[in-house]
Design a protein that fits this description.
The protein has 105 residues and is of the alpha/beta class. The chain is built from three helices and four strands. Strand 2, helix 1 and strand 3 form a beta-alpha-beta unit.
Length: 105
């Protein structure tokens, strides 16, 4: 993830980001709470998938991107600028199953 900030003449800051859908609920909460403390800073996160975040970051179209997996060495090389990776959200997968032979409890 890499971050940059565009400061408008009015003193307001607009940060544009996008990427993975999984962290959206937590990011929304964090960004809203941060905005309460810093009303002049707006963070717009576009939840459109990991590929979107990687592509838009590489194209310099967003200030930071989120992805379920880090960018590959090839993706980093194509970006043409230093990108920092760090984890922000952790989650787990839970297997679900149905075994008809088991009695209901």
């Amino acid at each position: 993830m890499v971050a940059g900030v565009a400061l408008a003449q009015s003193g307001n800051v607009q940060i544009t980001a996008g990427g993975a859908t999984f962290p959206t609920p937590m990011y929304t909460k964090w960004f809203n709470e941060y905005n309460k403390m810093h009303p002049n800073i707006q963070i717009n996160y576009q939840s459109q998938g990991s590929g979107f975040g990687k592509a838009q970051l590489s194209a310099h179209a967003i200030d930071f991107g989120a992805s379920d997996v880090p960018m590959t060495d090839e993706e980093l090389g194509k970006a043409g600028f230093k990108i920092l990776h760090f984890p922000t959200i952790m989650g787990a997968d839970v297997p679900c199953y149905n075994i008809p032979a088991l009695p209901a409890r």
